[in-house]
Amino acid sequence: xxxxxxxxxxxxxxxxxxxxxxxxxxxxxxxxxxxxxxxxxxxxxxxxxxxxxxxxxxxxxxxxxxxxxxxxxxxxxxxxxxxxxxxxxxxxxxxxxxxxxxxxxxxxxxxxxxxxxxxxxxxxxxxxxxxxxxxxxxxxxxxxxxxxxxxxxxxxxxxxxxxxxxxxxxxxxxxxxxxxxxx
Length: 183
Known about the structure:
Layout: E1 3-7, H1 10-19, E2 25-29, H2 40-55, E3 59-68, E4 75-76, H3 79-94, E5 102-112, E6 117-128, E7 144-146, H4 157-163, H5 165-180
Parallel strand pairs: 1-2, 1-3
Antiparallel strand pairs: 3-4, 3-5, 5-6, 6-7
Helix pairs in contact: 4-5
């Protein structure tokens, strides 16, 4: 049985499909007015309910936020909106001169195949670079350096595919799907 990934972001779909390679993942084009919350889990839960009401089949959504310590967690759950407005370059400018560059990427997948919503979460700690590093990936990949490393996700997709918040979360989700025989 197939599971549908409800997203309007083709890059997320391609990445998620590669992480869930042994699952029949299908794209469900989903545009939804996201609720405002400081909780990525709350946002994901609400979105998966909306997606399920449309597709009426096993479906999941994914919500991610980049939380920067020196900016009191900003952009957090507003990461996508901030990226659309100022991009990774704007984030670098915003942090110019800041010594504390600690950040954490957090991801939540919400899954619904019936009445119950399940969530899976993961994170990746790191820091924000002082300049754009690399051209691969998407979003904030050129400015996020995972803890213990010197390259950004955009400089090493292999590094991203082993350490990223999205990979860690999708791995938990994948194990659940395979174990539960839900698909």
